[in-house]
Design a protein that fits this description.
- Helix content is about 75%, strand content about 0%.
- The longest helix is centred in the N-terminal third of the chain and has 52 residues.
- The chain has 6 helices and no strands.
C-alpha cells in the first residue's frame, strides 16, 4: 500500500495535469494575448490622440486647432481696437457736423447736450413706484432713458407738425398725436390696453 502522505488526491493530480498540459499552451496563449494587447495598445494611442484632439476641440477652441484658439484670445483685443477706431470715426464725423452748424443750430445742440431731467425728481419717482431705495447709477440710467424717450416724442411731433403743414413751435395737439402714433407702432408701452391673442 502506498503512503497516504505521498499519494496525492485525484483532484490535485488533475489540476497539475491541466496546468502542466496548459503550461506551454497557457504561455503561448498569454504571449498571443499580450501581443494582441500590444497591437491594441499600438492602436489605442492613435485612438487616444483622436479622442484627445476631439476633447481639445470641445474644451478650448470649439472645433479649432490650438493656433485658432490663440487667435480667439487675440480677438477681444482686436475688437477693442475696432471699437476705438469706430469711436474715433464717429467723433470726427460729429466734429465735422458741428463745425457745419449755423449759430442757431449750435445753440440748440448745446442746449440738447446740457439738458437733463432733475435726478432728485427721477429718484423720488422710482422710489414711489418700486417702494425701495435705488442707487445713483440707476437714477442716472433712468434719467438718460427718459431724455431719449422725450427726444423720440419730440421728433415724432415735429414730423406730425410738418405733415399737417404747420410750423413750429410744437403745440400740445402735435405731442398728443405723436404719442398716439408711437403707441400704434408699439414703441410706447400701454399698460391699460391688453392684447387679445386669439379672436
Amino acid at each position: 500500500m502506498a503512503d497516504p502522505a505521498r499519494v496525492k488526491p485525484k483532484s490535485e493530480e488533475s489540476q497539475e495535469n491541466e496546468v502542466g498540459d496548459k503550461g506551454p499552451v497557457g504561455i503561448d496563449e498569454s504571449a498571443e494575448s499580450s501581443s494582441q494587447q500590444s497591437h491594441k495598445d499600438d492602436d489605442k494611442p492613435e485612438h487616444g490622440k483622436e479622442s484627445n484632439a476631439e476633447g481639445d476641440e470641445d474644451e478650448g477652441s470649439s472645433g479649432l486647432d490650438p493656433s485658432a484658439a490663440k487667435k480667439l484670445k487675440v480677438d477681444p483685443e482686436k475688437k477693442k481696437e475696432k471699437r476705438q477706431k469706430v469711436d474715433e470715426d464717429e467723433i470726427q464725423k460729429m466734429q465735422v457736423l458741428v463745425s457745419s452748424f449755423s449759430e442757431e443750430q449750435l445753440n440748440r445742440y448745446e442746449m440738447y447736450r446740457r439738458s437733463a431731467f432733475p435726478k432728485a425728481a427721477i429718484k423720488r419717482l422710482i422710489q414711489s413706484i418700486t417702494g425701495t431705495s435705488v442707487s445713483q447709477n440707476v437714477v442716472i440710467a433712468m434719467s438718460g432713458i427718459s431724455k431719449v424717450f422725450a427726444g423720440e416724442i419730440v421728433e415724432e411731433a415735429l414730423d406730425v407738425c410738418d405733415k399737417w403743414g404747420e410750423t413750429p413751435p410744437l403745440q400740445p395737439k402735435h405731442m398728443r398725436e405723436a404719442v398716439r402714433r408711437l403707441k400704434s407702432k408699439e414703441q410706447i408701452p400701454n399698460t391699460k390696453h391688453k392684447r387679445i391673442l386669439f379672436h
